[in-house]
Input
Amino acid sequence: MQVVTTSFTNKTTSQKSHLRHRLTLLVFITAALNPIADTEKVAFSAEKTNPPNIVFILADDMGYGDLACYDRKDIRTPHIDRLAAQGVRFTHHYANGAECTPTRTAFLTGRYQQWVGGLECAIGTGNVGRYDDAIRLRETHDLGLPVEEQTIVRLLKQSGYATAISGKWHLGYEPKFAPHRHGFDKTFYCIGGGMDYFHYLDTIAGYNLFQDGQPIRREGYFTDLMTDEAINFVKKQSADKPFFLYLPYTTPHAPFQGPDDYTPDPLPLDSPLQNQSKAPPQTYIAMIEHMDKRIGDMLRVLDEKKISNNTVIIFASDNGGTRSARNAPFSGYKGQTYEGGIRVPAIVRWPSVVPAGKVSTQPCLTFDFTASIARIAGVQAAKDKPFEGIDIIDHVARQADNIERTLYWRKPRGNTIWRGLRQGRWKYVSVSQQDKMKEHLFDLETDKQEKNDLKSNPQHSQKFEQLKLLFLQWEKKTRENRRGRPSK
Ligand SMILES: [Ca+2]
Output
């Protein structure tokens, strides 16, 4: 029987020893009284000497229906599927943002990305994707995640975790935003939103591969390089110190290059493979299958080190899929607040705490994992920057009933602003372009595809007005303190 912590606090050696005896006793008593109580009931009454390791794996632009365990028939993802079989798979999980940067901001800060300012849409090279706040911040070289922001990584490091990122950063090009300034002990990353997988150049031919803020030369397919770095980090960890590994893959983000698609010269900037909407289907599949294979290598290392039972693995995607993805059964794409742009796969495996083979229908967001990680590690947010998510891992570990929540999305890009709000079965969606605005009310329970707009239906017009008002109140609240706003 495995027993794990849910309320770790720093303990002295004698306290740990005492706890170990208490724990052993508790396990035997519980097992004797109830032979089937081998998971959540025991788990949440016991403590363990060490908090678990945490691995957060993020796919990039993976659609809701892009994995075999999410019903994609033409792809093989046995290792991610195994995580789902051994843990909980979420069917109502959402990315905090409809694009890369915002979701990463929300995950690391544990709060709506809107509070930070400038990071509500992907940071692009040149002026790609910018909007008012982001343009102002770029002009003063302030477009990125400021080191003054609270991150879960720094909190984990301060509490004794070894911390590493291997993968995609995308939270600022300026050196002052580099991940080693945010609490990561070890860093290996591509700095931008998408790059040639073999030559590490982005769409303006900027060099993207970095370590601790410095460009670094490597050879190989980026999915392999980052997994190898991560595996080396895990192999070096000692049993007496927990680790947090942030593993944000660039897969299956454009450009579309599989592991066997090496070319001596960099991909031309006008190559059709740079177009995120037009992936050759077999290349797209090869990219995901290779990521899955390498995740399998990581899982094997955890097994070899005999730490799988004490390692929480979280897998999610940073936003909905592009037109190259399978977003079924939803409509809409990356960048939009229709379900296809924000609802994504998510899986948690934590043997003996999180029940195996379960499916959760609890609506949840990326930053719920931040709240869970904080609780698991016994760290707390500053009073003036509380985490805004719920402890979703505790929720599924307890097999608690679904709770009603109100979830918000907002994504400006140029002059276009996408808005979204979900409350229970109801969804408010709007998109505005300067003075033009389209608004909708959908009932997700009967209309997953968001095709049947109910805002003008007299039976539901009150619900529409109520959700719209809620959204406007939230928008106003988050807008007032944002960086990048003109001073009053
Ligand atoms: Ca993305």
